Amino acid sequence: MLMLSKLRRGELLYDLGAGDGRILIEAARGFGARCVGVEIDPDRIARLKKRLASTRVEAEIVEGDLMEVDLSKADVVAIYLSDSVNLKLAPKLNRELKSGARVVSLDYALPAWKEDKHITTSNAGIKRAVYLYTKK
Q1: How far, in whole angstroms, is CA 55 from its chain's centroid?
Q2: Count of CB atoms within 10 A of residue 5's CB?
Q3: What is the pLDDT of residue 123?
Q4: What is the rounded distance in angstroms from the CA atom of residue 20 to the CA atom of residue 24?
Q5: Can you give the CATH number for the domain in which 129 is found?
Q6: What b-and-e string marks burial along 61-71, b requiring 16 or more CB atoms within 10 Å of the CB?
């Protein structure tokens, strides 16, 4: 996902639904990005903060609803959500993202957005779709 997004050193990545933090860790370590993780579940946040501490990765963690977070400073937004959430999220991304910002989505397309690239990858025999979009 991060390679497809062409994430660059110093760019600001938002991971919406940060979960276990693997995107944040890879973005910071492997790409030198600044990272913000958004997660609504307090238990996941506690585990996420422990994982970040154990890997010595610094990232801002926002506890809250991804629909309430200001995304205007994001260079890249990473999502692994669902069709129904992406349907609600697409207009917000269109309103808030700056021109040239990229959205990379695992498995679920963004309705009403024209993809720049769509690849299929396989992990442990499971085929996954990855979609890349650029805000015009």
Answers
A1: 19
A2: 26
A3: 83
A4: 9
A5: 3.40.50.150
A6: bbeeebeebeb
* Burial bucket for residue 59 (CB in 10 Å: 0-12, 13-18, 19+): buried
- Residue 82, domain extent: 2-134
Q: Position of tokens 């970040």?
A: 52
pTM of full prediction above 0.90:
yes
The per-residue b/e assignment along 20-58, b for 16 or more CB within 10 angstroms, e otherwise, is ebebbbbbbeebebbbbbbbeeeebbeebeeebeeeebe
Number of compact structural domains in the chain: 1
Specify whether the CB–CB gap between 14 and 76 falls below 8 A: yes
Q: What is the pLDDT of residues 76-120, one digit of tens each?
A: 999 999 999 999 999 999 999 999 999 999 999 999 999 999 999
Q: Which two tokens stand for residue 116?
A: 């720049």
Phi, psi of 68 (to 5 degrees): -105, -5
